[in-house]
Amino acid sequence: MYRTKTCGELRLANVGETVTLAGWVQRTRKMGGMTFVDMRDRYGITQVVFEAPHCSPAAGELSGNETSPTGGLQGAANALGREYVIQVTGTVSERSNKNKNLPTGDIEIIATELKVLNASVTPPFTIEDQSDGGDDLRMKYRYLDLRRTPVRRNLELRHRMTMEVRRYLDSLGFLEIETPMLIGSTPEGARDFVVPSRMNPGQFYALPQSPQTLKQLLMVSGMDRYFQIVKCFRDEDLRADRQPEFTQIDCEMSFVTQEDILQTFEGMAKHLFRELRGIELEGAFPRMTWADAMKYYGSDKPDTRFGMRFVELKDVFAQAPGFSVFDEAKYIGGICATGQAVYTRKQLDQLTDFVKRPQIGAKGLVYARVQEDGSVKSSVDKFYGPEVLNVLKEKMNAQPGDLILILCGDDAMKTRKQLCELRLEMGARMGLRDKNQFSLLWVIDFPMFEWSEEEGRLMATHHPFTHPKDEDIPLLDTDPAAVRADAYDMVCNGVEVGGGSIRIHDPELQDKMFRILGFTEERAQEQFGFLMNAFKYGAPPHGGLAYGLDRWVSLFAGLDSIRDCIAFPKNNSGRDVMLDAPARLEQKQLDELYLKIDLPQE
Ligand code: ASP
Q1: Domain with 254 in it: what CATH number?
Q2: For 565, which of 141, 259, 314, 553 could close a Cys bridge (C-beta 3.0–4.6 Å)?
Q3: Which pLDDT tens digit goes with each residue over 447-490?
Q4: Average pLDDT, stretch 383-409?
């Protein structure tokens, strides 16, 4: 037996016991006749003391291939370097100088035996909660980074979350079924990662963007309630905090309405919050239509931890034309920042710069402060008299001390998105985006299609298998852009944590959908023939959703990046810097696959 206890479990109650621990050397401190070694494993840190008086009798116990320098056991301890792997036997003893920051801080081990199990070269950064290693270094040596408590905790949380997901879904009769990784294309709106097939020269598999069509086939099979914690792959252009491979909690159910699905997965969210965060989420999650989410928050994933909903102001300013920017704008919208009239000119200039940044793209920012006497002072005072500004104040429901911020533009949707950025910025500045507060909701009734400038056609907002709302089906022929879908997203704190839809199970309707999406008969057949064919054999009504596991763990752990809850993540350029992947193939491998690399000359 390498160890009888872990480095995290000994307490005062163990005093007097003889124990053996195994782990890594966090650090050593020599103090006169004593050497202290902080010994670490997955469970914690325990202080081990090597005392000179104990050395002589025990020195003979030194084993392994290390040699004992002059000082016997203490000398051997002095020779330990950081991250050496050691085994220590000793007696648990009460510490005189207790460390309140460590769960094991009341005790220490008075060592009687030390065995070096393995040496270590000096690590490239300190293995401590606050590491001195930069991002790149930590990723290159991720196996060392994972020794750090905060990173390890994230993986522990991830594990507990998958266990709780399984427990909850199993209790409801869901079956966990694996679907293949080597498949054909799945249309989720991104590019596929492809894998050449040696046995089928010139042909390629695609890695699943999600098991969407496969889980629908499982419903045709009668599996009824399916889930899978599954890797998905999307070759997307790099966006902040996206991983080319990520994990979904993928679910599908038969004989259900949208309501059944929302309730089942609201139940799962509540279960996870209860079990993993000790938070009881009371009542049903609010539901907001996509149209309202866009109108009041400028986003399909509104952060509802705070208010500051948008108010449309076009009619307010139309009363007194003269300010051409507002007169010509198609949309004018404002938010009211409670108590922020104290904003200085400089701070307002900063905010103006913020909204004018190219990523946001607003032309400017209009502001109005409500003074203590109730009067309004604004940056457009020369165009609007007190009457108009008073109407503004009332419309915004602004009180003395409040700051009104206004954006305008030609394109309502674009301007709302800009206003959304401003709202989030103000929320952050005002401390309203507390990581320990959770606000969940469903966004429902997404539009079925969105217009793609790039493709010059309608694209499925969710995916082509999503069922239109029954009452909107007639619009498919007359005004497809106005069709709403039985599609829903679960949103928490401004993050989309899951989404899904009721699916089409009628082959004719599915056929129609493909046509609206611009598929020719042949292409639809080629890509989705298997599904359309399956639907002819009695497809049950079905629907489902997928949760992003990485997002959930990040949310629960309060992480800024999903990378921190992934054992071996890719960097922002999609590279694994530890494995140095992707990489070139050897010519032999290319030859076997009949592949020629034809890079553009640069
Ligand atoms: N396959 C969908 C996605 O990955 C989720 C779903 O509709 O179930 O977003």
Answers
A1: 3.30.930.10
A2: 553
A3: 999 998 888 889 999 899 999 999 999 999 999 999 999 999 99
A4: 97
Q: Is 510's C-beta closer than 6 angstroms to any atom of ligand 1?
A: no
Distance 447 CA to ligand 1 centre (A): 16
Structure tokens belonging to residue 414: 């674009």
Q: Are strands 225-233 and 175-176 parallel, antiparallel or unpaired?
A: parallel
Look-up of token digits 């990523």: 359
Examine residue 274 and state whether it is found in any structural domain, yes or no: yes
Judge if 157 and 279 occupy the same domain: yes
Pocket test for ligand 1, best of 186, 207, 210, 547 (most atoms within 8 A of CB): 210
- Are 425 and 461 part of one and the same domain? no
Q: Is 535 a member of any domain?
A: yes
**447 and 558 part of one domain:** yes
Is residue 46 domain-resident?
yes
67, pLDDT greater than 90: no
| Domain hosting residue 57, numbered range | 12-118
H or E element: which one contains 353? helix 345-356
Report DSSP letters for 96-148, one per residue. Answer: SS--TTSTTTTEEEEEEEEEEEE--PPPSS--SSS-S--HHHHHHTHHHHTTS
Note whether residue 195 is domain-resident. Answer: yes
- Regarding the beta carbon of 545 and ligand 1, being less than 6 Å apart is answered yes
Q: Find out whether the beta carbon of 303 lies less than 6 Å from any atom of ligand 1.
A: no
For the stretch 247-279, pLDDT in tens is 999 999 999 999 999 999 999 999 999 999 999
Q: Looking at residue 383, what is its pLDDT?
A: 96
- Are residues 282 and 162 located together in one domain of the fold? yes
pTM: 0.92
Tell whether 388 and 445 lie within a shared domain: no
Q: Which CATH number goes with the domain that contains 59?
A: 2.40.50.140
Query: Of 429, 460, 483, which residue sits at a domain end?
Result: 429
Taking each helix axis from N to C end, the angle separating 521-535 and 212-220, rounded to the nearest 10 degrees, works out to 40
Centre of ligand 1 to C-alpha 400, Å, is 47
Confidence of residue 53 (pLDDT cuts 50, 70, 90): low
Q: Is 600 exposed, middle or buried (0-12, 13-18, 19+ CB in 10 A)?
A: exposed
C-alpha 551 – ligand 1 centre gap (Å):
15
**How many A from CA of 139 to the centre of ligand 1?**
30
Of the candidates 368, 401, 429, which is a domain's last residue? 429
Of 246, 247, 245, 237, which Cα lies nearest the Cα of 573?
Answer: 237
Average pLDDT over every residue of 49-70? 53
Task: State the DSSP string of 438-457.
Answer: --EEEEE--BSEEEETTTTE
Domain tally for the chain?
3
Q: How many Å lie between the centroid of ligand 1 and the Cα of residue 64? A: 55
User: Are residues 310 and 403 located together in one domain of the fold?
Assistant: yes
User: pLDDT tens digits, residue range 478-532?
Assistant: 999 999 999 999 999 999 999 999 999 998 999 899 999 998 989 888 889 999 9
